[in-house]
Amino acid sequence: MLSPGINAIGEMTGQSFAVSGGGAPEFGESIDIPPMPRLAFSKEPAMTLSVIVLVIVLLGLSGLRVANQYQRAVVLRLGRFQAIRGPGLYWIIPMIEWQFTIDIRTVTAAVEQQETITKDNVPVKINAVVWYRIFDPKKAILEVRSVDNAVIQVALTTLRTGIGRYTLDDVLKEQETVSTSIGEKIDTVTEPWGVKVERVEMKNVEIPESMQRAIAQEAEALREKRARLIKAQAELEAAEQLRHASEIIMQNPAGLELRRMQMITEVGAEQNTMTIVMMPSEFVAMARGIAEMVKRP
């Protein structure tokens, strides 16, 4: 039989021990004892920890965002405004914060054709172009819905009402002044939305054909009037010069002879068949003297 200690070890390990030879082992006798099995530890807690760390890393990476130089991100946390982020790399809390990206570059928007009436009751059709940009992304998100559409609608109504304060001549001749006035009115409305209207230009102005003919006739009459005034002014200046020349000639009768010979030279240079009869100046003086004698009583 085995000793009690060996029996206890066999009961703990579930193994049976064999002793060479019969009977109880004596001192110095070898006993064959099999190796004890290693204890097996569970791997589930380590795998769970690895999964948790991986999920945290993925959530952290999913919150990374990049905004371009011309963009700004309006970040809301649980529905409340938190901050304006960008440009560059930034991080938001996943599933708690979300963003709205705003382009702060200048936007060119075409205003569709509007038919309106000027101050002097002339119907016109006008196309315009609006240049604007967002200077406050927070207001552009929180104060108005669809800021681009809102700016276009304001430009439409302001263009229609603004043209009604000017006559047709002002609209055609003072387009820069009219455009500046309309742009200032649009900017006043859009400023609370964080939008700055930089410029407004009228692209095309269409008027009825009857008004086009009337304007053409008016322009023609003005040009004819201007031409007659210029012609009359030229005749007046010519008469003044002729009077001044006659005064000089009367002071020196020899100048009249020189002028007469110059005129003959000019006529002869034209190679025409005109016949010129020259009369001495003495005959003219004698005729003048006879006329004076006849007038005397």
Q: What is this entry, summarized?
A:
The protein has helices at residues 4-13, 44-62, 137-142, 147-163, 168-173, 175-190, 209-251, 253-269, 281-295, and strands at 64-67, 71-77, 80-85, 88-91, 97-103, 107-117, 123-134, 195-206. The chain is of the alpha+beta class and 297 residues long.
Structural account:
The longest helix is centred in the last third of the chain and has 43 residues, at 209-251. This protein is an alpha+beta fold and 297 residues long. The strands form three sheets. The chain has a three-stranded antiparallel sheet. The chain has a three-stranded antiparallel sheet with strand order 6-7-8. Among the domains are: 1-33, no CATH class; 47-103, no CATH class; 107-207, Tetrahydropterin Synthase, Chain A, CATH 3.30.479.30. The chain is built from nine helices and eight strands. It has helices spanning 4-13, 44-62, 137-142, 147-163, 168-173, 175-190, 209-251, 253-269, 281-295, and strands spanning 64-67, 71-77, 80-85, 88-91, 97-103, 107-117, 123-134, 195-206. Helix 4 (147-163) crosses helix 6.
